[in-house]
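Re: [ENG-882] Designed sequences occasionally contain unexpected residues at chain ends

Forwarding the minimal case from QA. Structure tokens:
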């Protein structure tokens, strides 16, 4: 085993245990105990290995999610690219359903726009239009749950941690329509955040094009039936034992409830 492989194994073990044991962990990048620096290429390799472990435990990849689709967030992190993570069937929550808070470390809810792919996207076809591969759109709530202590992480950290992916609920699918600058409202208990789909790279369809570019570079498959979570339209709100409800004008609503069993 090479030193690089050993480092990846150590990071994968740490992040996988954090998720399974519902216990936070310090930032990976720059941790002297791990013995190496975390660059972006290595972070995506770690993410892939983490997903492989989940698949080996019986989960199925059902889509992808985008992060850093806010221009303000990009500027804050000093980056110019979106990030991509994977979502699995074990993360899915029915619209109107419950999710056990014991699964999460410090969950937050975000309002999103979701797209559904009608066919495989050929990453090697320079002429493919990912928008033509989409057949449906819906409102969505994503639950993010960084495995890092206090939600503090670097750019490479969050990529390695599968972009904080933890849960999601999708509203009613409908035929694809224009979704630029639609009003968005997220309510979690008594807290509320309002915004617009324009916060998602100015128009959520731009997130699809950014996704294709990243998936080509990182060789992340895009399959028929996959869900694409295009990015958050407002700031995230902490999720406790309460209902999170998202409304996107023209697209509809979706909600879920956090419970402790």
């Amino acid at each position: 085993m090479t030193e690089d492989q050993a480092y990846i194994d150590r990071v994968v073990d740490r992040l996988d245990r954090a998720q399974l044991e519902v216990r936070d962990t310090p930032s990976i990048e720059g941790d002297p105990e791990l013995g190496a620096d975390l660059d972006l290429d290595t972070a995506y390799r770690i993410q892939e290995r983490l997903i492989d472990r989940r698949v080996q435990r019986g989960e199925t990849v059902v889509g992808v999610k985008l992060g850093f689709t806010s221009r303000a967030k990009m500027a804050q992190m000093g980056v110019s690219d979106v990030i991509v993570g994977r979502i699995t069937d074990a993360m899915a929550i029915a619209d109107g359903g419950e999710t056990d808070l014991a699964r999460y470390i410090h969950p937050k809810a975000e309002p999103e726009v979701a797209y559904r792919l009608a066919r495989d996207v050929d990453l090697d076809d320079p002429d493919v239009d990912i928008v033509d591969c989409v057949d449906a759109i819906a409102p969505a709530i994503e639950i993010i749950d960084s495995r890092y202590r206090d939600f503090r992480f670097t750019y490479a950290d969050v990529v390695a941690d599968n972009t904080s992916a933890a849960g999601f609920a999708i509203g009613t699918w409908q035929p694809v329509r224009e979704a630029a600058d639609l009003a968005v409202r997220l309510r979690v208990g008594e807290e509320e955040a309002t915004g617009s789909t324009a916060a998602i790279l100015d128009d959520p369809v731009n997130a699809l094009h950014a996704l294709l570019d990243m998936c080509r570079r990182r060789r992340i498959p895009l399959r028929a039936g996959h869900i694409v979570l295009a990015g958050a339209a407002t700031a995230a709100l902490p999720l406790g034992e309460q209902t999170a409800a998202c409304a996107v004008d023209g697209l509809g609503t979706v909600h879920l409830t956090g419970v402790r069993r």
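QA comment: On inspection the terminal residues look reasonable. The mean pLDDT is 93. Proposing we downgrade this to a documentation issue.
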